[in-house]
Amino acid sequence: MFKIEIKNLQARARIGITAQERNKFQSLLVTFSFNYSIKNKKKLDDIEYLKDYSSIIKFIKTFIEKSKYKSLERLVFECSQVVKKKYKINKVFLSINKIQVAKRYKCESISVAK
Predict the structure, then answer these.
(1) Domains, the chain, ranges and CATH?
(2) What pTM does this model have?
(3) Which of 98-104's residues contact partners 24+ apart within 8 Å by CB, and which partners?
């Protein structure tokens, strides 16, 4: 089994409960990971059997940047569901960190994960 981890992908989104918070883009750090197996070891060099993590990165970044959700919880839930379906991945981990808000409260991170 292979584990793919995309760590601290930078994205920007208009997200927040209040309209004022959604008025401007906020910087986010995204961590996404998943496991998958390739049954036939002879196929390890065949792109047809591998997960295209470059495509997954681009998709996640675009999905987040075009999103219009109010809460990180909704964004994490919706993004993980769509990625599971689109890339046929069963178990995923997605964490989104609001770095500017964390700095405001003088903490290392404020994130939501699923």
Answers:
(1) 2-113 (3.30.1130.10)
(2) 0.90
(3) 98/15, 98/26, 98/28, 98/72, 99/27, 99/28, 99/29, 100/26, 100/27, 101/26
